[in-house]
Amino acid sequence: MPSLFEFRLTRADSPFWAVALHDGHQISPPLAPYLLLDDEQRLREEDPYTACMAELPVNQLFVGTSRFQLDINRAIDGAVYLRPDQAWGLQVWKEKLPEHILQQLYQEHEQIYTQIDQWIQETIDTHGFFVVFDVHSYNAKRESRDEVIDAAANPQVNLGTHYNKPLWRPLIEEFIKSVSKQQLLESPIDIRENVKFKGGNLAQHLTKKFGDYGCVLSVEFRKDFMDEWTGLPYMPTIQEYKQLMLHALKDLQENSVHGNTR
Q: Whole-model pTM above 0.85?
């Protein structure tokens, strides 16, 4: 059977990585007959346009496969949503997936993590450290399309930093400082740490294995850049988020050049 996991890798001479693990919407043909959810239902919980925001002049890993097929930001035992409680109450599959398909998905989860480990180790060997921008988005209108967002509970930018070692605190502060001095649609940006999310499996894995040599900044954008119920994008806002990331990258690069990352 052909691969069930699609991704795009772009390498650069840089210690920085930009990843969009949930941007994908693809369902592989062998799994399509088993899928119960329609495109709109899946799109609501995916992170469309995050690859655009993460399209930075650094190493890039953008996943094309939908998280509803294989979610590599979860540990392997939860990477395939087999129960509604794993998928926001949604029943993903019409019937139980064949065992050979399920085992291939789990195998490909292991393979991509082996590859990621290799890429990060190569980055450490070349540059001495690494920084991952782990770009995601999240819904803030759970009840209805017309719901008024509770801004106190839903920051525009949720920065997941929980699993990083304390030695990376100066770099984290530099990122927050960079974002805070920018504006979004001519207004100050509300960025806070670990309010909605602390970081997923990728962050936990990399910081546990390579935490002395780098950190993962899990950047969760509130879905102000789209209609989260229909998927309609607001391109000017998407471009502003991308510019925000570019400016933050520039600030961190300038900082790291002077040896201040560690």
A: yes
